[in-house]
Each structure stands twice: as structure tokens, then as C-alpha cells.
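Entry 14. Ran structure prediction on the chain below.
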Amino acid sequence: METLKFIEQKHLIRKKDIIKEILLSIFLGISTFLCFQEMFQFTLNFSEEYRGGIRSGFIYTWNQIVDVLGNENYILLPKFSGAGEGNTIFLIILLFLFSIIYFLFIHSRNRWAMYAFLLFVSVFSEIANLQISMEKILFFAITVVAAVLYVRNPNGVCNKLCLFIFMIIVCATIFSSPIGKKINARSETICKIQSVLKTKVKENYYGSNLLKNGDLSQRKREKSEKEAFKITMQNPQSIYLRGFVGESYKDNHWETLPKYNYYKEHDFFYWLEKENFHALGQLGQAKTLVNKEKMKKENEITIQVKEADSRYAYIPYEMISKISDGKTWGGSFVSTSSFNRLTNYKYSMGDNAVKTWTDTAAKMFLLAETETVKDYLRSESNYNAYVYQNFTYLSKKEKSILNTYIGKAGDQSKGHIDYKPAIQGVQKYLEDNFIYTENLGKKTEDGKSMLEEFLASKKGYDVQFATAATLIFRYYGIPARYVEGYLITPKDAKKMESGKATTISKSNAHAWVEIYIDGTGFIPIEVSPPYRKIMEEADMEIGISNNSLVRSFDNKGAVNKQTEETESAGDHKKHVTFSILAIIIMLIILFLLVVCLKLLWKYFICFKEYRKRRKLFYKAIPKQAVSAIYSYMEDKEYPIEDKVRKLGNKAAYSKEELSEEERKEMLIALKSTAKEKKKNDKKSKKHTY
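Output, C-alpha cells:
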């Protein structure tokens, strides 16, 4: 009967354990599902008409994930046909699958798999730029830690879990309080640490750019003679090599357009390429179309990156072929795909078109009605609208600053002021009124944007000159972008040998402005005084004139409105979030608090027992003290001699009283046996090893 009772009790305990495991699995499944739901913007809709089937729901879910990754990080994945009108049934099945997987983890006591799941969700959301709210990630972390505590000790989980939940509530209360929100909103420490760490990691992995990819906060231009890359040309010539392209100005840095903009226009550029329109090499394409003489043999270029930033491909304005490992961003620049590095790549280019762009632009205007140019201009008109929509935007603040320093924006009744006076005016204004210096000194006044500080201080280097020129051209209604890259100067070209690699140092890094010439494409304009004499420039007196090359349509108001909408689109999707680094730091602090509290409690109990034991050993009557010491030595498994054992038994079982000398003898034995026990333990460990 006793055996049966034991078996029944064991089964009952096991049933309780399974119930606990199921409940924990459900909570883990729900918390994981909520994180994925927020990352990929899933919606549970229980109405009959939008429920959807399993297969169609899976396709619907996949396509939604593809759209979210494309909009948030310009990750291009294939979509599939056959999607239903909803995915509710599939999401419910997914929730059950999460719970079943977690049950298997908990039941098999595999806590590392749960840690891996938490790490995966955190890292993936950071890499893919998918934000999770504080509440969801905290709920997920609580359920994971609760499950891990259960796996480690199913019987003692209650006290630990209660302590953990208490600490969570304390931290959540601090973070959600007005003071916590104020500190989190105003403190820039975490953001700075995160930014510095990311920059260092990227520079170590990809290589560095002296001009910092649009970061305008640098007070001194870095110098380096290290090897940037090796370039091999079949026909050596001087060229501008575009790398980073700044499309959106944000006070103290340049950014690319929002990633959802590139994703939205991906199909548009796909069809432009199908129609043989090459946005990246448009200037070279335009030159080939309007010149009757045939282009020389294509110039094969090979680049082997050494110390330069390998995130971007360095490409000329005359590029013809594609880079196989690169990803094109809206016809602006080419970057690496995923976490690869563009360290060795090839492409073809045509003859130098930068030094003759004025002649090309004039011929394009004159030959607009010929058959050879008509098809090109049809595609160009679509790209033209895209360019004006995205690269003429200025905020009210920037317009006000420019109006203060350079006056009115001129006659823009035809869309923008004429190219010739605009280009010559910008170059003359910057050359006559500003000092080129590569050390700006300390920032004089906080709160000023780079543009305002540059226009007020009247000093800077190529980064500041190019930034100001870009914004001034936009102020005049001409589409413009900020560019960082490398120069292959005429002096460099003379040293090159056909088919042999030539080293280009980091000192060749340069920033410039490029403007869009209707029908012709983006062309680099040199505005930094020291560089005006280095690179070959087009003759402004040939081909181009004041009354030509002005676009024939006028939708400037609509364009600016559309641009503002593009810039602000997606704001409704944003919500208050904490960075993953902040969450991880908070979880680490929380874990350390729990460990510290546990250790403090343990030491408090030990100290309490020590005080009680010391009082008993030294203050109690000798017989009681000796008996307690002997009992303690047995509990600790100290090596007890026969003499000490007899004294302990005498204290426990004899009616005789013991003396103070016998107490001292027992205390001496306690110390010596404790030391002997330590020595034996060390020997045992060495022997085991």
C-alpha cells in the first residue's frame, strides 16, 4: 500500500509539472507571437470574409514580411502569387506552433534554446531595423526568464519567480514614470554609445571613409596616406568615382532617402533598365547618343579595395555595365548586399563625359526630335519627374537661412533659374567669400546647423562647401545631391599604365555637389576652391546658354508638396520604442540586481547563522557549547579524531558538567579540522582533474 501511495503521489506531482510546463509554453508562445506581430505588422481579423485559408494565409504572411523588410531596410525578397484576403487562421496556427516548440524545450529542460530564441528576436529586429515596443520585448524577456528558472529548478521556482517579477515591476515603474521618461527622452548617452560602437564595428569590418559618409559634425578633416584601393584601367583617364550619395539634409548630417522610397520605386527602375535607360551612367549614355562619332572601345575598370569603405562601390558617371555583387539604390549609388564587402569588382565605362557635359547637353536639346534620341528622352522624362520629386526639397528653416545670406532665389517661372548663371554664381560666391581650411576649431555656438554655421563663419573644407552648394542649387530649383567619393586626377591618369594596377591613396577622397541637367543627367560641379584647378572642367562658354536646357513643364509646387509627403510618409507607423541596446542594458542591470539581491540574502542568512553559532560556541555553558561544536563538525563532515569524538559524546550523553578547558580544547579542534578539511578538498579536486 505504501508503494502504491508513493506512485500515485509521483504521478500527481508529474501532472502538476506538465500543467506548469503547458502554461509556461502558452505564455512564451504568446509573447513571441506578439513580438513577431509587431515587427511584421500582422493583424488578427476574425471576420468571416477576411479569415483566409492555411496555404493562402501563408503566402499572404510571406508577402507581408517581404513588404515590411523592403520598406524598412530595402531587403529585396521574392513575392508569390496565390495570397488570400487575410491570414488569421495561419497566424493562429503559428501561435500554436510557437507554444508547441516551447513546450518541447521546457519538457526536455533545454534552456539554451530559449535564450537563443530571445537573442535571435533581439538581434534580428536590430539588424532588419524592425522596432519592438518596450512592453512586448519586456513581456517576452519575463516569460523566457520564468521558463529558464523553472527548467533549472522546477520545485524552487516560486520564490525566484516572485523576486524576478517584483524587480521587473520596479524597473517598469521607474521607466514608465514621468522622471524615467524624461531621462530616457533627454539622455543621449545610450544613443552616443550605440552610435560609436556601431561606427567602430563597421569601420573595422568594412573599412573607413575619411569624410565619414555624410557626417558633418567633424571639426577637422582627417588625413591619411594609406592605400584606399587599387584601380586598373584599359584606357587611363581622369574620373570622378561616386561612393556615398547624400540625398536628404538633416542639419548636421546627410542621409539617403528613406528605405521605403527605394523599395516603392524598385519596379520603376526595373522597367527603366528594361527600356535601356541607365540612371547610374546616364551622362555617359547621353554623350554616346548625341555624338555622331563612335565611342572608343569600352574602358574596363577593376577595383580592389584595401582601406577604403567597402560598403559602397566607387563608380564613374560614364558607367555602362552592372556590378554583379552590388545592390542599386534608386539609380543613386551601389552598395553591398547583406553583410558582404565590395572588395573586388569590375565594370565598363565610356569616355570621360564630365569635361564635355555642356556640349552634350546642348546637342541633346537640339537633337530631341531625332529617332535615336526620342526613345531615350521618353524614359528620361519619367526619371526626370522622380529626380525633381526627391532632390529639390528644402525645409522652411533652410529656405529662411539661404534667403538671409544669399538673397532671393531668382526667376523660377520655368521651374528653376538658368544653369549657367546658377553654376557660375555658386562657384564665385563660395570662392570670393569663404576661406578653405581643414581645421574648423571649436564649435562657436550650439544649436546651429552646419549650413548656418558655415555661412556665418565663412570657413570650411570640401564637405562644407559641397553641402552649402547642394542646398543653394536646390534653393534655385535645380535638383542636387551631396556626394563623397574619390578623384582620379589627370595627374594620376598620366602615371597609370594600361592594364596595370595603380594605388590610389585615401588622400584622394573628396566631397562634391552633383546637379541634374534636364535630358543629360547628374553632373559633378566643383565648388571647393583648391580643387577647381585639379580636375578638368567643362567649358561653360560652349554649347550651354542662358535660354536653353530649361525643362518644359512647371510643377514645382506639386513637386515640393510631394517631396514633403515623401519625407514625412510613414510617421504614422512610428511609435515610442527603446533601442535594443537600451533593452539589453536594462535586462543585464535587472539580472545583476536579482543576482546581487540573492547573494545579499544568502550572506545575510549566513551571517545570521554565524552570529547565532558564535554566541552558542562562546557564550553558552561549556557542556552545551561542546555539544553544539561537535554537532557542527559532523554536519560539515570534518575529519574528527577519536579524542574529539569522545569529548563530543561526553557532552551529548554524560550527565557530568564540562569545564572551560574542554570548551577551548573543542574550539581548537574545530579550527584544525576545518583547515584539514580544506586541504583534503583541494587534494581531491587535483586528483579528479
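The mean pLDDT is 81. Will compare against last week's run tomorrow.
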